[in-house]
Write a structure and sequence with these properties.
Elements (H helix, E strand, L loop, with lengths): L2 E6 L2 E10 L3 E4 L1 H6 L4 H23 L11 E5 L7 H12 L4 E8 L4 H4 L6 E6 L19 H13 L1 H5 L11 E2 L2 E2 L4 E8 L5 E8 L6 E5 L9 H12 L3 E5 L4 H4 L2 H4 L2 H17 L8 E6 L1 H13 L3 E7 L17 E6 L5 H11 L4 E6 L11 H16 L12
Parallel strand pairs: 4-5, 5-6, 11-12, 11-13, 13-14, 14-15, 15-16
Antiparallel strand pairs: 1-2, 2-3, 7-8, 9-10, 10-12
Helix pairs in contact: 7-13, 10-11
C-alpha cells in the first residue's frame, strides 16, 4: 500500500496526517490548530504529497491493477507505528477496496495502539510497546530510506508469481479471469534450468498461454536478470496477446558481478543460442516459432544470435537497445527487426539510427515520445509492449512470410 505522511511546514517530521490511495486522507486537526494552519495551507501539502504518491504507484505497480480484496483478510505490515496516521490511512484504503477484515502487524509502537486504532483495524499485533517509546527509528540499528530500485527489486519475485495467484480456483459464480482474450487461469508457468557451456546452468521462467502462437525469448540488459520488472511487464502483455515467454539469466551471479562479462556480447550470444536450442528440445515449446526481445546489451546479443540461427529466429524486438554492439553482424540478420527507443534517450537514438541503416532485413525504428532509457514514464512501457506485440503478431506466426528452417 502506497501511503504518504503529511509533514508540517518547516517541521516535516511533525505529522499533520497522512494520505493513501483511493482518495483517502486523515488529518490531525489538533496539530493544525496548534500551528495556526488554514485548510489552504494543508491543501498545498496534500497536493504535493499526492503527486509523489501517484508517482510511486506508477513506478512500483506499473500498469497492474491493485489486488481485489473483496471480502478478504488483509494483513497490513509496517516497520513501526508512531502517530498511527499512516496506518489509519492505509487501513481505510484497504476497507475501500473491499477488505473484510484488517489486521495491523508491527514490531514496535507506543502503548495503547488498540485504542488509538480502534474502528480502523480489527486487530493489532505489536511485539514491543515500551512505556518510554519516542520514535520508531530509535529501535533500529539501520533506519535508512529505501530507494525505488530496492522496492522494485523486492517486488519482482512476487510479480513473477502473479499467474500462480491468478490460477487459484475461483469460487462459484466468480467471473472468469480473462485479460486480452486470454484466460489467465489456463496459463502454465514453469521454473526451468537451461544448460549452457562448461557445465553452467541458467535459471529461467516459462509462461505459456493456451494455443500460444509463438515463443518470445528475452535477453535482458546489462546488470539485469530474468526478474527485470520492465521485461516482466512486457512479458505479461505478450502473454495476454497469446505468446509464450521465456525469461532467463544470461549470466550466473558471479559472472554478473564482472562488468566485462556484462558487455561480453559473444558470451551473451552463446547463452541465448543455448536457450534457443533448449526450447527446441522442450516438448511443450519445440513446435513454436521463436522471436527475441532484447534490452540494452541484450539487444546486441539477440541480433547476433539471430544472425547465427538464420531463418530459425523469425522476429527480433529491441527495447532501448545497443544494437551497435552487434557490429558487422547486423548485415547478417534475416529476421524482421523492430528497434524501439525513447524520445529523450539522446545518444542511444543515434546509435539505433545507425544500426537501422546497417540492417538488411525488414526493419523499423519506433521512437516513444518523451521516454528515457528505461521507459519509466507513465504509459511508456505499455507503448513498448504494444509495439512488440504487434511486431510479433505480424512476423512470428508460422503463416508469416519467413520460412522456418532449423537445420
Amino acid at each position: 500500500m502506497v501511503v504518504r505522511k503529511l509533514g508540517a511546514p518547516f517541521q516535516p517530521e511533525l505529522g499533520l496526517g497522512a494520505i493513501a490511495e483511493e482518495g483517502i486522507r486523515v488529518l490531525n486537526r489538533r496539530i493544525m490548530e496548534a500551528l495556526g494552519l488554514e485548510d489552504s495551507d494543508v491543501e498545498r501539502i496534500v497536493q504535493r504529497e499526492q503527486a509523489e504518491l501517484e508517482r510511486r504507484v506508477r513506478r512500483y505497480r506499473a500498469a497492474r491493477p491493485p489486488l481485489d480484496l473483496s471480502g478478504r483478510l488483509a494483513i497490513l505490515i509496517d516497520d513501526g507505528i508512531a502517530t498511527g496516521f499512516t496506518a489509519i490511512a492505509a487501513a481505510r484504503a484497504l476497507r475501500k477496496r473491499g477488505a473484510g477484515r484488517v489486521i495491523l502487524a508491527v514490531p514496535i509502537g507506543p502503548p495503547g495502539l488498540d485504542e488509538r486504532l480502534a474502528g480502523n483495524v480489527d486487530e493489532v499485533v505489536c511485539l514491543q510497546s515500551p512505556p518510554d517509546f519516542f520514535a520508531v527509528g530509535a529501535y533500529y540499528e539501520h533506519f535508512e530510506q529505501v530507494s525505488d530500485e530496492q522496492v522494485i527489486d523486492l517486488l519482482a519475485p512476487a510479480r513473477s508469481r502473479e499467474v500462480e495467484h491468478a490460477r487459484a480456483a475461483p469460487g462459484a459464480g466468480d467471473p472468469p479471469r480473462v485479460q486480452g482474450g486470454i484466460d489467465w487461469t489456463q496459463i502454465t508457468h514453469r521454473e526451468v534450468a537451461i544448460p549452457a557451456e562448461a557445465g553452467v546452468v541458467l535459471p529461467g521462467d516459462v509462461r505459456l498461454p493456451p494455443g500460444a502462437s509463438g515463443l518470445v525469448v528475452f535477453a535482458h540488459g546489462s546488470g539485469s536478470s530474468r526478474l527485470s520488472p520492465r521485461n516482466m511487464q512486457v512479458a505479461a502483455a505478450l502473454g495476454a496477446a497469446g505468446f509464450g515467454t521465456l525469461l532467463f539469466d544470461l549470466l550466473t551471479d558471479q559472472e554478473a558481478a564482472d562488468r566485462r562479462k556484462v558487455f561480453d556480447i559473444p558470451l551473451l550470444t552463446r547463452r541465448l543460442v543455448s536457450a534457443t536450442h533448449w526450447a527446441w528440445e522442450d516438448e511443450d515449446l519445440g513446435d513454436l516459432p521463436i522471436g527475441y526481445f532484447g534490452a540494452s546489451t541484450g539487444a546486441a546479443a539477440a541480433l547476433c544470435a539471430a544472425a547465427d540461427l538464420g531463418t530459425t529466429v523469425r522476429a527480433v524486438v529491441s527495447r532501448g537497445g545497443r544494437p551497435d554492439l552487434a557490429g558487422e553482424r547486423l548485415s547478417e540478420v534475416i529476421a524482421p527487426t523492430l528497434l524501439i527507443v525513447g524520445g529523450a534517450d539522446r545518444g542511444v537514438i543515434e546509435l539505433n539510427e545507425q544500426a537501422e541503416r546497417a540492417l538488411r532485413c525488414p526493419k523499423k525504428l519506433v521512437i516513444v515520445p518523451g521516454a528515457t532509457h528505461l521507459f519509466e514514464e507513465p504509459g511508456a512501457l505499455q507503448q513498448v509492449a504494444g509495439h512488440a506485440a504487434d511486431w510479433f503478431a505480424a512476423h512470428l506466426p508460422l503463416g508469416s512470410p519467413l520460412a522456418d528452417d532449423r537445420g
